[in-house]
Design a protein that fits this description.
glutamine amidotransferase, globular, alpha/beta, binds glutamine, pyridoxal 5'-phosphate synthase (glutamine hydrolysing) activity, PdxT/SNO, 30% strand, EC 3.5.1.2
Length: 200
C-alpha cells in the first residue's frame, strides 16, 4: 500500500484527499517536513500559487520538497500546483518562485482575466475513451514544453484562444493539469497518478 500526501497549506485539500482514497491509496495531509517524509507521492492542489510559494517557505517545506523532487518522488500538480512544478512562468509576480522540476513554461491566468472559469469535455487518451469534464478556475495553460514532456491533453477546437493549448502534461514522475479533476467526481486523473506512485 502506497501513501500519497496532499500539500495542505492552502487550496482544496479535502477534495484531493477524497479523490485519492477513492483511487485506493492511503493519504496524509502534509504541513510539516515529518509528514512529507512519510509519503511516496505528493499532490500540489490548486489555490493561489503566490500564496503557496510564500507558505512553503514559512512552513519549511520548500527545500524538503525540492529535495524529494530531485530524488524522483512522483508529484501531481493541479492548477496552482502546475504553476509550482513549472521551471518557468509567464505572468508571475515579481518575487514569485516555483519549485520547478518540469521543463514547461506556463502562463498564469491564461484563459483571460474576465474568464474566471471555463469548462469543457477534454479528450485525454491516457485515461481511456471517455473525455474528462475539465473545470478550469483562473487556470494556467502550458505555453512551451521540451522534448522530455509528454502532452496528455489539449483543449479541443472551438474555444477561441484556448483551442489547442496543452492543459495536461507528464514528464517522468511528474504530472500536471491546468484543471481541477477533484471537483467533478471523476477520479481517473487521481487513479492515473496513484498508478504512477505504485510503479515508482
Ligand atoms: N490563478 C491561480 C494562480 O496563479 C491558480 C488558480 C487555481 O489554482 N485555481 O496561482
Amino acid at each position: 500500500q502506497v501513501t500519497v500526501g496532499v500539500l495542505a497549506l492552502q487550496g482544496d485539500v479535502r477534495e484531493h484527499l477524497h479523490a485519492l482514497r477513492t483511487a485506493g491509496v492511503a493519504t496524509v495531509a502534509v504541513r510539516r517536513p515529518a509528514e512529507l517524509d512519510a509519503v511516496d507521492g505528493l499532490v500540489l492542489p490548486g489555490g493561489e500559487s503566490t500564496t503557496i510559494d510564500k507558505l512553503l517557505r514559512i512552513f519549511d517545506l520548500r527545500d524538503p520538497i525540492r529535495e524529494r523532487l530531485a530524488q524522483g518522488m512522483p508529484v501531481y500538480g493541479s492548477c496552482a500546483g502546475m504553476i509550482l512544478l513549472a521551471d518557468s512562468i509567464v505572468g508571475g509576480t515579481a518575487d514569485q518562485e516555483t519549485l520547478g522540476g518540469m521543463a514547461i513554461t506556463v502562463r498564469r491566468n491564461a484563459f483571460g482575466r474576465q474568464v474566471d472559469s471555463f469548462e469543457c469535455d477534454l479528450p485525454m487518451p491516457a485515461l481511456g475513451d471517455i473525455p474528462v469534464h475539465a473545470v478550469f478556475i483562473r487556470a494556467p495553460w502550458v505555453e512551451a514544453t521540451d522534448d522530455a514532456v509528454k502532452v496528455l491533453a489539449r483543449v479541443p477546437q472551438g474555444h477561441d484562444a484556448a483551442s489547442g493549448r496543452a492543459v495536461a502534461v507528464r514528464q517522468g514522475n511528474l504530472l500536471a493539469t491546468s484543471f481541477h479533476p477533484e471537483v467533478t467526481g471523476d477520479h481517473r486523473v487521481h487513479a492515473y497518478f496513484a498508478d504512477m506512485v505504485r510503479h515508482t
